[in-house]
Design goal:
This is Carboxypeptidase. This protein is an alpha/beta fold. The protein has one domain: Alpha/Beta hydrolase fold, catalytic domain (Rossmann fold), CATH 3.40.50. Helix content is 34%, strand content 17%. It is built from 14 helices and 13 strands. The chain has helices spanning 8-26, 108-117, 165-182, 199-216, 234-247, 253-260, 265-273, 279-292, 331-339, 342-347, 377-385, 403-416, 457-460, 462-473, and strands spanning 65-73, 78-85, 96-100, 120-123, 126-129, 139-144, 153-154, 191-196, 222-228, 390-395, 421-430, 433-441, 445-450. Strands 1, 2, 3, 6, 7, 8, 9, 10, 11, 12 and 13 form an 11-stranded mixed beta sheet that branches. It has a two-stranded antiparallel sheet with strand order 4-5. Strand 1 (65-73) and strand 2 form a beta hairpin. Helix 6 runs antiparallel to helix 8. The radius of gyration is 21 Å and the shape is globular. The termini are far apart.
């Protein structure tokens, strides 16, 4: 979408048409990831062909990177692409972390690895080192899922039809089991799953399958789950948007009133996904759209937008909304152009199948969008009951999945599970500044905000996100003092 040769006017014309489709595609923002491989001091024959010798334009680093494919369905020839980065220091002592973006249909490689918490950020033809990369603390595995996202593909194109949460969870489970065959030294390593947005659906469902699978045969050493600005319960998460807009000055008192009473956001999205938007909802959303304006990034209401991609499809989490970008506000344009370079694709052992180019969010995937309405907060509850620690964290500048909805859901869940407050609501620190606020229940369920962070927390607050990540991996409370 972001070829700079388009002028803004042309873009607007084209994009308005794409918006409706794209919203769908986008509902949740980050989906996938890239699977990478690992080894110690020897090559295992199973992963040596996935070793990345050097990414074009990358600075010299001491850690190994892998990328390639794992077939998850022989019949349809479904293959998921992964990018794997070993920890910077002493990888054999560090845990394995799987990162998933949302969408449904967005790339963990392009968003997670290259815009958020991976080791490099694209800048023109080169890669710049990310000083706050999460591979400082863990071996990071990014998976592009489901098929049809990024470089992941199905030779049989029916593999892209009616893809659901259940199909995605199953494919992700198969992926991990087969990935361990390539990287046997990780099989018994502590494993954490992290991600954001629609990954609030992907991750609990995958973790749940792991827990069930382990009852038959202990394969997954799952030690914790972290969910960033996640969709956990559709109505609560979406309807907290009106209050967020209003309290941050994006809409007027009168619009706030109709946005809660006449047609709230979850009703609008439900109608939209079913192909019929009532006149009352159309009217309310037109008013909301006019007041919030397309020149404010709904994923970070305080951030400037990237004008060239103000209408870029990977930013449409909702119908008729255009969103901008993050700190390098045009990072998405950089990533798209980098990942479409032939030499980059060659270095990553990636291929394009059924698509002409790599895109941030898939336009060939037909996802069961109504799955968004099925709550996953109950699955989070069953993970906690099974002894799996869960962290829900929220960038507090995100209006798409606002912190108020997530905080409410975590608090209610703690009540249902009968968990006592073990860390009362308080600030936490990163460096000499407040990093955000946190509250813990039963030392197993934690809510945290990240101050000044967008929907994509590690992108917008890299240093604070790294402090949060480290505490999560070490299952320690967030730092209390300077």
């Amino acid at each position: 979408m972001s070829s700079s040769s388009f002028n803004l006017v042309t873009r607007i014309a084209i994009c308005t048409t794409i918006l409706l489709l794209a919203q769908i595609c986008l509902f949740y923002k980050n989906v996938c990831g890239n699977q990478l491989q690992h080894h110690h001091h020897h090559f295992s024959s199973s992963n040596s062909s996935d070793l990345i010798v050097n990414l074009p334009g990358q600075p010299k680093v001491n850690f190994k990177q892998f990328a390639g494919y794992v077939t998850v369905d022989q019949k349809k020839h479904k293959s998921l692409f992964y990018y794997f980065v070993e920890a910077e220091l002493d990888p054999s002592s560090k845990p394995l972390v799987l990162w998933l973006n949302g969408g449904p249909g967005c790339s963990s490689l392009g968003v997670g690895a290259f815009s958020e918490n991976g080791p490099f950020r694209p800048k023109g033809n080169i890669l710049v080192k990310n000083e706050h990369s999460w591979n400082r603390e863990a071996n990071m595995l990014y998976l592009e899922t489901p098929v049809g996202v990024g470089y992941s593909y199905s030779v049989d194109i029916t593999g892209y039809d009616a893809v659901s949460d259940a199909v995605t969870a199953r494919d992700n489970l198969v992926f991990l089991r087969r990935w361990f065959n390539k990287f046997p030294q990780y099989k018994h390593r502590d494993l954490f799953i992290t991600g954001e947005s629609y990954a609030g659906h992907y991750i609990p469902q995958l973790a749940n399958l792991m827990v069930q699978f382990n009852k038959k045969e202990k394969v997954f050493n799952l030690k914790g789950v972290a969910l960033g600005n996640p969709v956990l319960e559709f109505a609560t998460d979406f309807n907290s948007r009106a209050e967020y807009f209003w309290s941050h000055g994006l809409i007027s008192d009168s619009t706030y009133k109709i946005f809660t009473k006449a047609c709230n956001y979850s009703r609008y999205v439900s109608e939209y996904y079913r192909g019929y938007v009532s006149p009352v909802c159309s009217k309310v959303m037109r008013q909301v759209g006019m007041e919030t304006s397309k020149f404010v990034d709904k994923y970070d209401v305080t951030l400037d937008v990237c004008i060239s991609s103000v209408l870029s499809q990977s930013k449409i989490i909702s119908p008729q909304e255009q969103n901008g970008e993050s700190i390098d506000v045009c990072i998405e344009d950089e990533t798209v152009s980098y990942l479409n370079q032939k030499d980059v694709q060659k270095a990553l052992h990636a291929r394009l199948v059924n698509v002409r180019q790599w895109t941030v969010c898939s336009n060939i995937l037909d996802y069961e969008l109504l799955d968004v309405e099925i709550p996953t907060i109950t699955i989070v509850g069953s993970l906690v009951k099974n002894g799996i620690p869960v962290l829900v964290y929220s960038g507090d500048q995100d209006s798409v999945i606002p912190l108020t909805g997530s905080r409410t859901l975590v608090h209610q869940l703690a009540g249902k599970l009968g968990l006592n407050t073990t860390t009362p609501y308080r600030v936490w620190f990163a460096g000499e500044q407040v990093g955000g606020w946190t509250e813990s229940y039963g030392n197993i369920l934690t809510f945290a905000t990240v101050r000044g962070a967008a929907h994509e927390v590690p992108y917008s607050q890299p240093a604070r996100s790294l402090v949060l990540f480290k505490s999560f991996l070490e299952s320690r409370p967030l730092p209390q003092m300077l």
